[in-house]
Design brief:
heterodimer, A: alpha+beta, Immunoglobulin-like, 4 domains, 34 strands, B: SH3 type barrels, five-stranded antiparallel beta sheet, disordered N terminus
Chain lengths: ~650, ~270
Amino acid sequence: MGMTAHRETHRGNATHPHRQGGWVGAWLLGFVAVCLFAASASAEDAPEIRVAASAEEIFIGEAIDYQVEIRNSKNPMAPDLTALKKLFDVVAQGDESHNQSSTFIVNGRVSQQNIFSHVYLYRLTPKESGSLMIPAVTATIDGKTLTSRPLSLRVVPAEVQDLVLVEIEPSQTQVYPTQPFDLTLRVLVRPLPNSEDANPLQPLRQQPPHLQVNWVDPIPGLSTDDKAHWLQPLLARDGVGFTLNDVSTRSGSFFDGPKLAALKLAHSRQTRDGLDGDPIRYHVYELTRTMTPEKTGVYELGPATVKGAFVSGVEKDELIGRRLVAIAPAVSIEVKEVPLPRPPTYCGGIGEYQISASANPTKLRVGDPLTLTIELERGTKSGSLELVSAPDLESVPQLAADFELIDKNPTGRIEGSIKRFAYAMRPKRPGVSLPALSVSTFDPGTAMFTEINTSPIPLDVSEASRITSGDLIGSSPTSSTADIKTRTEGIFQNITDPSGLRDERISLATWGGAAAIAWCLAGGLMLAVTIHRRRSSDSAWVRRQQGRREANRRLSLARATLSGGQSQEALREVRAALIGLIADMQNRVADGLTTADVAAALDATTVPVESRDALLKLLESIESAEYGGGSAADPSQAIESAQSLVAKIAPHLERGA
Amino acid sequence: MSSPQITSNQGSMAAFLLTALMTLVLATQVHAADGGTRERAFVRALEQFDAAKSQEEYRESARTLEAILTDGFRNGAVYYNLGNAYYRAGDYGKAILNYRKAKPYRPRDPYLAANLQQALAAAPGRLTESPRPWWIHVLFWTDWLSFPAKVRLSMIGFSLAAVVATTGFWFHLPRLQWLTIALLVAATATSVDTVLCRADVTDSRRAVITGETIARKGIGNSYEPAFDQPLRDGAEFTVLSETTDWTFGHFESVGDGWVRNEFVAR
């Protein structure tokens, strides 16, 4: 079937094979191009938002992982978690794209499937216990606000007990930036019932109690030493101790994955009253970390929790365990601003610094550039160098008088514990030198400002051959030149014509669709023309299409001939019209067709008998008139009869064909 | 016999052309609806700009212009004036950003180009600009045509090619075949240019630093600085990813780093 159609197509196009193929190829090229372009702008599935939580029940102080997934959006925006912040501390854990793009080719048909998914990760720590509802979050995608479903979360509160106590204790609650302080997590564990001095963690070594502390990882604004460096000495090889957050170790075996590390904390004893008022000599375990604030503000450290099964009694010489959670409330550390008033030379440094200055070159002429480099070296207990700004050299009268400062506020460059500021300047007069420069820093230990000084730098500045004020960068240009030039400073004026305020947004999909429609119409039109032309090359079809028209034309000619007084000729035309109609409709040769042939031809059609008989009678009368063998026919009546017969039999002949 | 057929074909052709033109005209009017609110705000912003004496007053003018751009409204003149307002307010980063946003809509505006250069020169944090992509040299007209003009031209080119192709096919005019191919090639090239420029208009990853800040190597101030110097107002970069509070960007000729969103304008 397909083969036949294929052959017919070629036969139909045989008249202009190259031309036709070229046009179809051009049409296909254009249509594919338009479709591809339009497809790039087509709408995808509707965006949606999904949420998931890592747990449905946790102890107070614990956190859950909360995941927000935005699907079917090429340009997702981070969700709005404002609604969650009333009940939870929210910490962003980053985001990742899960976009997928697949192209399928089936039977030569190319289709593409794009899956857009972007996942935002958060860690939520409940601020209170009970049955909580994680509120719905919203995200605005393409101007539409999507809302997730809320999730339920049960937060189990801590019970009142004296088996395990936990607390956080800072060495100071108020510090200045860069002033280090210690933060200690203290866990007090009741002695074992059968052995006062034995380590109560020893029986728990198979499943050590777990500490959850929020200041193990770096806190913005508080610097600490490296976590691994801090915890490495505390690793317990015998597994007796506490596990901490997600701090884990590897066994070294290829097949074993990482497991939580047991940490052996500093151990001591301390006596406190139990719930019943009796003194208990607790085993105390302490985890201490030194922190250095870099910026001012109030820092909330904690809460911290200890969770696990602890020995609560003995029954038949067997220890009885009790699973519990103890929580240490958070503590606040206030990092105060450096007090006011501050000396004008204060550079922002807090702690101990050393300053030095160097110049290059030291031998130069008036107007030559030189670079003054000031180095501030940070002491071990000093604040971040990022806080240190460039000393204001314009405030040094001698320097401002003797030198033209090219770069008044250079950007510092930090290398290790040193921050360097490079000033470009030019001496204004011979014999000048760089004076000692003073910079003030704040000492948090004494809460006083300390002044540190550079040494004077002698320079060998000689007289320049000639220097004008125009040679100095920053000075006013002289107007000695007569050439007028365009000033680069300033901006050109606003556009003030509101008539240009039309929306210049443009829809690629709409325009692509319009072009695609144009090509579809063109394709349809070309297809219709092709079909028409193929049929036109079928002579039988063409004759059939033209038969009725040709018959009418000849009858019109007969009328004209009759009006010219040529009745015989008119009758001949009438006969030719009727015979021609039959011949055209049945694709026969008209010449030589007799009335008997016509009768036989009509027998094979659906032409009504009365019409057939009338037609035959008319033909016979015309033949009689022509050859003189019968009564003469009235030409004008013959034309009218023929006209009527053509209208009657032509539809039957067309159908019959 | 052939004479009446041609008449019929001409009628069909006229209907086809009319349909195509109607489609294009309707497409242009999708976004035509707009009230006078924006015009009033535009004029008010101009008045505020002219009366401004302080940086804050220039920012007020900028806020009025920003309000015009809500609901996805796009206009090169508004972006241009917005850039001027931010420039006068001393917010060079935002000025650069808005001049760049105006560029696809006003590619041949010499004042826009001059003001952008002026803002770049004034910005304290200007970084080396990324080299222009190679295809700019191939699609040489890309700086001559506005983005809407590119879209319209490419689609009109495709539609015209369809008309020419049909005409040539109908009337057996083989020379029109070459005209069709030429139109298709031109329209396709313009479409490619349009698609390449589309990101600058609809999904811009271009951003700029608006104040002095330190780029970090991770999300959080505890991470080490990514660069040896702080970034300053006017440092342009390409957004690689972002979170609620931080944006990860590529700074040309410097590297990649995380910056807080409060110092980022897009």
